[in-house]
Specification:
Layout: H1 23-30, H2 32-35, E1 38-44, E2 54-55, H3 59-70, E3 73-74, H4 78-95, H5 97-104, E4 111-118, H6 126-138, H7 146-150, H8 159-172, E5 177-184, H9 197-207, H10 216-236, H11 241-248, E6 252-254, E7 267-270, E8 298-300, E9 303-305, E10 308-310, E11 317-328, E12 331-350, H12 352-355, E13 367-368, E14 378-379, E15 393-405, H13 409-419, H14 424-431, H15 435-439
Parallel strand pairs: 3-15, 4-5, 5-11
Antiparallel strand pairs: 1-15, 2-12, 6-7, 7-10, 8-9, 11-12, 12-15, 13-14
Length: 442
């Protein structure tokens, strides 16, 4: 049950700072260095239905200072403190990544982690992407208790808190991992295997005799063997990850495309279904591989299936680069370079009588109007944007954004130098860029 400590005999005074729930305006004020990178917003915890907030680069610190300076009641949740703690820990881990590597992970370099949704990049649930990525991180770090320790689970914890903590965790681990949010498009709703399991075991046994023919037939069997095994496994574990992934990799189709002045690239078929196109009608082995080489290859049990041509305030937030890919039946048809920003990003003003009980509920419906110097700042009817006499309380606010990064002209120049073989450390000296900036351009 919440507790209120009466720390001073004075009464709470009215809040006098602008408030907003517009994602763009919030990011511009709370994390201006990130706002300058935005090409388009893809998702956020802010909308017309969420509480209006005064943006700040560090919501917890600013809320405490504002409450002390201006006689506002202060409301805190354990989540607010914990988000501030893990954002600080993230800075520490990032600065000492190599010293701490063996504590967190067993691999060298960066390992790409991928989580998937049946969606396209414009309607995906990026909050769920972030929490799913935290789950994926738990499978790839040394200590399985790390992620449950980082992600809050208090009685006051909201979905937004979990998303923000997940992004802060991703930021802390960014020297060890890169992140891919994969949007799956087309696919097969279901697959039905007729006959009995015994029939499919029989099929597997027949396939196992193919190597007796020798020569290229041995390679043909090597491609067919994982397929037959997974078909039998479909009867034993129809909803297992292995079986679902197997059927997801069956096939995809890349339409014809054109590159420069050269001839058009014919449509491409990829997936393990290409194993059934091993030889052409003349008995000659097909030159599989597709126009894009290994980019279109699919793997099953380690076997490669090649494509077939079809003729300054210490911030309370962190930002992490993520790659959003849109896959249609296993083929990446779109890739976006994005960044997720999350943490303690503002101060939520409100009524003490309400906020001391309903800590994270909806605010009264605000009205929107233009305010000079801001983009769609939300204010309450009949009041100037800096004052609301009913608001005498402030609470740190957690939030997050994901946006697609706009391409900078210098990135093209950087890539040109990289193509010429100039080392990354030399590029940092030439242009004064941070190594992370250089490594982010690919």
């Amino acid at each position: 049950m919440p507790i209120t400590i009466r720390t001073h005999p004075i009464e709470g005074e009215a809040w006098r700072s602008p408030i907003s729930n517009d994602a763009e305006a919030m990011l511009s004020s709370a994390a201006s260095t990130e706002a300058s990178n935005v090409k388009r917003f893809m998702d956020s915890s802010f909308s017309k239905s969420t509480p209006a907030v005064t943006p700040s680069t560090n919501g917890l610190v600013s809320a405490a200072v504002e409450a002390w300076n201006n006689h506002h009641h202060l409301v805190l949740r354990p989540d607010d403190i914990w988000i501030a703690v893990i954002s600080q820990l993230g800075f520490f881990v990032d600065a000492h990544a190599e010293e701490l590597r063996s504590f967190f992970v067993a691999h060298q370099g960066q390992r790409e982690l991928t989580v998937r949704q049946d969606a396209n990049p414009d309607n995906a649930d990026y909050g769920r992407f972030a929490t799913d990525m935290a789950d994926e991180l738990s499978k790839n770090v040394n200590d399985p208790e790390l992620v449950p320790w980082i992600i809050p689970n208090f009685s006051t914890t909201t979905d937004t808190d979990r998303v923000a903590a997940s992004v802060l965790l991703m930021g802390a681990m960014k020297k060890y991992f890169s992140y891919n949010f994969c949007c799956d498009g087309c696919g097969i709703p279901s697959v039905t295997l007729l006959g009995t399991r015994g029939d499919w075991v029989d099929l597997q046994a027949r396939i196992d005799k193919i190597p007796n023919l020798g020569g290229e037939a041995v390679e043909f069997h090597r491609l067919l063997n994982p397929i037959a095994r997974h078909m039998v496994l479909s009867f034993d574990e129809p909803q297992s990850t292995a079986v679902l992934e197997f059927w997801r990799l069956i096939a995809s189709w890349e339409p014809p495309s054109y590159m420069g002045s050269g001839p058009p690239i014919v449509a491409q078929i990829s997936g393990w279904i290409t194993a059934f196109c091993f030889w052409d009608a003349e008995g000659h082995r097909n030159q599989l591989g597709g126009a894009y080489g290994e980019y279109q290859s699919r793997y099953l049990d380690g076997v490669e299936y090649k494509a077939l041509p079809d003729d300054q305030k210490v911030a309370g937030w962190a930002a992490v680069p993520v790659k959003v890919t849109y896959e249609v039946a296993g083929v990446v048809i779109e890739e976006r370079k994005c960044r997720m920003v999350a943490g303690s990003i503002g101060m939520r003003p409100g009524r003490h009588a309400e906020m001391s009980v309903r800590l994270d509920g909806p605010a009264p419906p605000p009205a929107e109007r233009e305010t000079p110097g801001r983009t769609r700042v939300t204010v309450y009817p009949g009041l100037p944007p800096q004052t609301n006499p009913d608001f005498d309380t402030v609470q740190p606010h957690t939030g997050w954004w994901i946006y697609e990064v706009k391409e900078k002209p210098e990135n093209k120049r950087l890539q040109k130098y990289r193509d010429l073989g100039i080392k990354e450390e030399d590029l940092t000296h030439m242009f004064g860029w941070e190594m992370e900036e250089v490594q982010s351009v690919h």
